[in-house]
Write a structure and sequence with these properties.
The protein is of the alpha/beta class. Helices cover 24% and strands 20% of the residues. The protein is built from three helices and six strands. Strand 3 (68-71) and strand 4 form a beta hairpin. The longest helix has 14 residues, at 85-98. The relative contact order is 0.14.
């Protein structure tokens, strides 16, 4: 819903997804956030499958178009605007499965033409 519940230290957030890089955010406990970037990041998170959400540790919300998920394995997934989330989620999981251990970056902002980069195999 976008309401600030409480403040936690970084050490207390080990089981939570951290949203970072929101410019000029001034969250106030008990109030709803107004930053478009933060609201988009929350919408992206709430639209993910349990399988993908369980892998996400951080969301970078520099801008709506540059909203990115960072997994526990350090893979950056550029999701962008919180639209077509189900398709973006499916395509992301397919790439993660097919390129397991190799992929380091995925861009599904244009879900019909996803882009990924990986490490070269030996």
């Amino acid at each position: 819903q976008g309401y600030v519940l409480e403040e936690k230290s970084l050490e207390e957030t080990s089981t939570l997804v951290v949203v970072r890089d929101v410019q000029d955010a001034q969250p106030v406990i008990g109030e709803r956030v107004e930053e478009e970037e933060l609201l988009n990041a929350l919408a992206v998170l709430s639209g993910l499958s349990d399988e993908l959400r369980d892998q996400v540790r951080t969301v970078s919300a520099v801008s709506v178009d540059e909203t990115a998920l960072i997994t526990e394995d350090g893979i950056e997934i550029l999701f962008g605007e919180a639209t077509d989330l189900e398709r973006k989620d499916v395509v992301t999981r397919e790439i993660l499965e097919q390129q397991e251990g190799l992929v380091v970056f995925i861009d599904v902002r244009t879900v019909d033409v996803p882009v990924w980069r990986g490490l070269e195999g030996e």
